[in-house]
Amino acid sequence: MFAIGDKIVYPMHGAGIIEEIEEKKILGESRKYYILRVPCGDMKIMIPIESSEEIGVRGIISMEEINAVIAFLGRETSEMSNNWNRRYRENMEKLKSGDIYNVAEVVRNLMRTDKEKKLSTGEKKMLSNAKQILVSEIILVKGIDQDAAIKLIHSAI
């Protein structure tokens, strides 16, 4: 279980800081929730504590690990399906996994694909979401602002 002030990652939403732990009654059932503040967009998210492990909530990675992820962004583009639908599904599964390397792979591959040939609207939205997830964790690990985190990603790719 995490505590107030802990920095955690919520798959598909990104990293944030637990501001509160609240008990809420929803549909007649009382449950405890982490109230997570995400640094990008100043969004707050309620995460049910009892299912947080199942959802894939994890602590943020270390400085050493984030530097390895940034180095990973500079590697060759991994093989992707030519079929847009299949590629989209595969990338969505990577994002849902919550694994930072999978998120970084989606960001890297889609950014490079976008330079070669324009992405579809769906993939542009996916790239934006994946980048936001990656940026939020970089912000919390490195203690930098959003612009600096975005520049770090772009310079690595």
TrEMBL record:
SMART domains: CarD_TRCF. InterPro entries: CarD-like/TRCF_RID (IPR003711), CarD-like/TRCF_RID_sf (IPR036101), CarD-like_C (IPR042215), CarD-like_regulator (IPR052531), CarD_C (IPR048792). Residues 1-111 form the CarD-like/TRCF RNAP-interacting domain. GO terms for biological process: rRNA transcription. This is CarD family transcriptional regulator. It comes from Sinanaerobacter chloroacetimidivorans.
